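User: Structure please.
Assistant: Input sequence and predicted structure:
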Amino acid sequence: MGVTTDADQDGYASDIDCDDGDASIHPGADETCDGVDDNCDGQVDDNPIDPSTCYVDQDGDGYGTNDEPTVQGCEAPEGYAGEGGDCNDANNTINPGATDIPGDTLDEDCNGHDTVTFTVDADHDGYGTEDGTVALADDGTCDPSQGESDHAWDCNDDDADIHPGATEIPGNGTDESCDGHDTPPCYTNADGDGDPSSVVLVDPSDGDNSSPTGDQDCDDTLTRVHPGAEKVCDGLDDNCNDSLDDQDGLVCLEEAGDVWTDLTADFVDATQHATYTASNGTNGHIWLGKGTSYRTLDISTGHGDDLTVAGRYGKDLTTLSGLDPTDLQAGGQDRLIHHSGNGAFTLTGLTTGGGGMWVNNGAADVTLTGSHVDGNHAVDGNGDGGGILMENGTVALVGSTARKAPWRCSTT
């Protein structure tokens, strides 16, 4: 009878214990996937308690598909792999262990999406810079809230108001839209006079109908109307200064049908005592501009001819005087205005000096509106006189004054 021992004290004698130096190995032990005959039945890793799931691996890349039947064991048999998750078991370059190629629309690493490249967007305006940091987004999307952008054209990644597509502020020296330059302020110039009307953002090189100047054209349909234009008799704001025919000394006759005549040469002459005659057929407004006009008026308009002599900008800025300017303080004994017709006559927005008003030989209606008769004296052939001498007709003063001269109305 031989001698047996139980060196590892696992309860099994050495004659039946296939490894008496390891207490975990003996008949009846649990078989595990360790490459050892744990239960001493003469087979290695048979029916283990810790088998692995093996997956069908058709492309031999070491990864099987989860959709095929699986087997259990310590080692994958031929045609199987110990790892699943292969999203394309017909292509051995696609599996969970592969490196994804960004932007090729393929999911090489089987994480559910193609990896994308993004540019770091420091100011979170949706645009990164061309020379900015490039990174990979494994989730397949660029998330602006995380400072990720698929646009790399931001010319200033420290300012969220500056990026391609931003609204340009003309002429501020900043390229908000990242197109390489600050947009200049240009304007439409429909009449081609070089001065603009409405403000638009256009390229001045686009054609003749744009203007880079900042002065506003108040009428972009008329070439003669623009800032800096010469004032003429037309009832328009020719130079766009918000005033009509306001040039010093400009005198204009406006008649029915928008007919205009320049009378400046007939009125503005500081060296002579000339007379302007308004006869039958003269019907409208004589507009006097700023300053003093040295002329007397001889009015013989007929019935139905209504004549108005008006200071365009009121009695404080416009004067009608019959005196030589070197003798303005001497006091006048002359007829500044002689009305001998039947037409209605209105004096408005004027200061008169150097002669009075004499109305005779007619039945005229005379009206003074917003005017000032200052130091005038009109004398008739009998020596009768006054600031306003009415021998026929009626006179009405509306918001007007007369001073420094006697007043006399005669109905002889």
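The helical segments are 264-267.
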